[in-house]
Amino acid sequence: RVHLVPGFIDSQQADWIFEQLLQDIPWGQRTHIRQEVSFEEPRLTCWYGELPYTYSRITMQPNPNWHPVLNMLKERIEEFSGYTFNSLLCNLYRNEKDSVDWHSDDEPSLGTNPVIASLSFGATRNFEMRKKPSQEENGDYRFVERLRIPLDHGTLLMMEGATQEDWQHRVPKEYHSRAARINLTFRIIYPEPEGVWK
């Protein structure tokens, strides 16, 4: 289940929020290791929440010091959606070369059927989704159903139900120049049982 709310934050307020977050969030670039090769993530990130969060074998340490603008946005989304979020992954796409590859937000700490509220500011970027192939298709993504959703300044995208179980998503690199974009993904994180493989 995907719910798109264009103009969730009106453009004038969204302009102000974008500038505040760009300046104030302690953005950092993480390093991944894949098949013994290390490479830097093609975007900047920052984590907020009482608990650590592990994805792609990188653990982001707890950071309970929420920026007041982020607290205000969290409360507004909670009032709108009826969910209570306890954590937030912030992403900064500096230009058209920054991206995030195909993945599902299905880490054990997110629980079953996670709810993710994704709020975008700045340049419009395409958010692409593709359905995971059935077992008969044996991991072949060539013929699966695909969606492309342009996420504009101030747009809220809610992902619920079996979205993460059945679909993958990405923000691809673009060929034309793009200004900076900030994406905030509010999540509900649960303490991970000891010994869970990450």
TrEMBL record:
<keyword id="KW-0479">Metal-binding</keyword>
<dbReference type="GO" id="GO:0005739">
    <property type="term" value="C:mitochondrion"/>
</dbReference>
<keyword id="KW-0227">DNA damage</keyword>
<dbReference type="InterPro" id="IPR037151">
    <property type="entry name" value="AlkB-like_sf"/>
</dbReference>
<protein>
    <recommendedName>
        <fullName>Alpha-ketoglutarate-dependent dioxygenase alkB homolog 3</fullName>
        <ecNumber>1.14.11.33</ecNumber>
        <ecNumber>1.14.11.54</ecNumber>
    </recommendedName>
</protein>
<keyword id="KW-0558">Oxidation</keyword>
<dbReference type="GO" id="GO:0035516">
    <property type="term" value="F:broad specificity oxidative DNA demethylase activity"/>
</dbReference>
<keyword id="KW-0223">Dioxygenase</keyword>
<comment type="similarity">
    <text>Belongs to the alkB family.</text>
</comment>
<keyword id="KW-0379">Hydroxylation</keyword>
<dbReference type="GO" id="GO:0046872">
    <property type="term" value="F:metal ion binding"/>
</dbReference>
<dbReference type="GO" id="GO:0006307">
    <property type="term" value="P:DNA alkylation repair"/>
</dbReference>
<dbReference type="Pfam" id="PF13532">
    <property type="entry name" value="2OG-FeII_Oxy_2"/>
</dbReference>
<dbReference type="InterPro" id="IPR032854">
    <property type="entry name" value="ALKBH3"/>
</dbReference>
<comment type="subunit">
    <text>Interacts with the ASCC complex composed of ASCC1, ASCC2 and ASCC3. Interacts directly with ASCC3, and is thereby recruited to the ASCC complex. Interacts with OTUD4; the interaction is direct. Interacts with USP7 and USP9X.</text>
</comment>
<dbReference type="InterPro" id="IPR027450">
    <property type="entry name" value="AlkB-like"/>
</dbReference>
<keyword id="KW-0408">Iron</keyword>
<dbReference type="GO" id="GO:1990930">
    <property type="term" value="F:mRNA N1-methyladenosine dioxygenase activity"/>
</dbReference>
<feature type="domain" description="Fe2OG dioxygenase">
    <location>
        <begin position="84"/>
        <end position="190"/>
    </location>
</feature>
<dbReference type="InterPro" id="IPR005123">
    <property type="entry name" value="Oxoglu/Fe-dep_dioxygenase_dom"/>
</dbReference>
<keyword id="KW-0832">Ubl conjugation</keyword>
<keyword id="KW-0539">Nucleus</keyword>
<keyword id="KW-0560">Oxidoreductase</keyword>
<keyword id="KW-0963">Cytoplasm</keyword>
<comment type="function">
    <text>Dioxygenase that mediates demethylation of DNA and RNA containing 1-methyladenosine (m1A). Repairs alkylated DNA containing 1-methyladenosine (m1A) and 3-methylcytosine (m3C) by oxidative demethylation. Has a strong preference for single-stranded DNA. Able to process alkylated m3C within double-stranded regions via its interaction with ASCC3, which promotes DNA unwinding to generate single-stranded substrate needed for ALKBH3. Can repair exocyclic 3,N4-ethenocytosine adducs in single-stranded DNA. Also acts on RNA.</text>
</comment>
<dbReference type="GO" id="GO:0005654">
    <property type="term" value="C:nucleoplasm"/>
</dbReference>
<keyword id="KW-0234">DNA repair</keyword>
